[in-house]
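Bench log. Compound arrived from synthesis this morning; before running ITC I wanted a structural hypothesis for how pyridoxal-5'-phosphate sits in the protein. Inputs:
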Amino acid sequence: MNYISTRGKIKPIPFSEAVLMGLASDGGLLLPEVIPDFRDRLSELSRLDYRELCCAVMQPFVDFSDEDLTDIVSRSYEAFTVPEVVRIKEAGPYTVLELFHGPTLAFKDIALQFLGNVFEKVLSERGGSLNILAATSGDTGSAAIQGVRNRNNLKIFVMHPAGRVSRIQELQMTSVLDDNVFNIAIDGTFDDCQSLMKSIFSDLEFKKSFSLGTVNSINWARVLAQIVYYFHAAFRVMERTGAGDVSFSVPTGNFGDIFAGYMAYRMGLPVNKLILATNSNDILARFFGSGDYSCGEVVPTVSPSMDIQVASNFERYLYYRCGSDPARLSSVMAKFAQQKRLDSTLLDDDPDDVIAAGRATDEETLSTITEVWHRHQYLLDPHTAVGWKVAGDISSSSPVICLATAHPAKFPDALPSRLMKDAAKHPVIESLTGSETRCSAMNCDIDELKKFISNGVAD
Ligand SMILES: *Cc1c(COP(=O)(O)O)cnc(C)c1O
């Protein structure tokens, strides 16, 4: 399987190269040349355990041997605390798919543990090293650090805005003391961190001489790892209920998670609806509701990992809505960059109509947490609560699976009562208090950052 760019200006490349490239070098996003069809293999796949299923689903997409892939998968999910990597629970009207049993208690671990192992494997074959630079507003940083800590030939530099991430998120990053991990607290906002990233990556000479790479959610390997749990959960729920298909409710920010669900659907998984749930940063909900895709200002909410306006993975979906025509997609994106508004009349009609969208305000999110706790004795984190609320607004004739993207202990401030805060407690979070930390404070200054990176790389 080779990978192409949505903008059509690179030659097809194999998986290993696609993973190192991250963003396509023509500014587009990478996609598999064809989407493999699993329709004839569903009953065979349904008999596999989670790790076997990973190998079966991923095999057509990668350029690793079966043996190497099995090894990468088994190492990626060693640190998960439930036997099947994810856990399925019934709660009232829905099935909850708990994706937060990895080292940082958020679903991002499922993809970033895998990505760390893929990087290590590719580097061991090609030689050389990779230095990852990331900017985080919270969750991605810690999951990326856990994915690459203590690995050969990899270093990671993570910038966060000083004093603007939660105490828990900060400790989850700065308490990792491995030699290859560098935390940087930037005197500025998350946008300042992102513009530092952009300046560094636009300095192609610097990027090349320091072998800089990224781990953000546009990396295809992250999407790939996430496809697997859609299959796993659908199989378990169809077995239990006898239903012929299922729906998923997906708390959405950068459109990475739900795009994995869309891929699963295109691969032949019987999906009735993919319910896209946003908080008040609702550009995607507006697009699927009325075709209006216009940027607003990002507003802070109780589900901070979804406080995003322009979703970086959305271009992948738009590519298919442009008839898989890179020239058409490129002109749609160029127009969007100019007008900050997408002209949806330029897109094909949605042939499958599988994505339905809605939004939840903070007030609705908090009352959902309280209601589900009292009625069903299940404690939702604020991101999962957005998905639960929107699932209730959209009718589905099939069983609904709500993706639980974080453990409630990660976001105690959003839990409405003392009782819930106590019930949420998790040893991974508790153990952070008082731990030794390491972090470098820095001005928002590109030269200072470059100097820090070159010293760190030389270390
Ligand atoms: C990142 C994140 C999301 C959003 O996922 P996307 O792939 O960006 O749409 C939702 N919930 C939590 C807890 C997250 O960390």
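What the model suggests: The pocket of pyridoxal-5'-phosphate is lined by residues 106, 108, 139, 217, 251-257, 305-306, 383, 405-406 (CB under 6 Å). The chain has a mean pLDDT of 95.
ITC booked for Thursday regardless.
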